[in-house]
Amino acid sequence: MQDSPEYLAKKAFFDKVLTVYGRNPVMEALEDENITIHKLHLSKSNKDADVLEQMKDIAKKRDIEVVYHDKQALSRISKNAKQDQGVALDMVLEHME
After folding, report:
1. Buried-most residue among 10, 22, 79, 87 (CB within 10 A)?
2. CATH code matching the domain that covers 5-92, chosen among 3.30.479.10, 3.30.1330.30, 3.40.190.10, 3.30.460.10
3. Tens digit of each residue's pLDDT (9 = 90 or more) over 21-76
């Protein structure tokens, strides 16, 4: 069985995506206009915090999709449930081959 062109295109895209997690690294990446962001991932169980509001505001200004997940789904994205602090960010590495 051969992979579909759609699957191959999606796989090629995600080969160029780097996911960072933790509030400080995510905030730093969001604030850098030179970084292309694919998606901001937030835990549904996050307690209200100024930094989370700032992240959402920056995402809105930069037209970045924000997706909410339960803790288990977010830990699959971050691959580090103990240290992700309820946030993860997919960055596109433009020049990665």
Report:
1. 87
2. 3.30.1330.30
3. 999 999 999 999 999 999 999 999 999 999 999 999 999 999 999 999 999 999 99
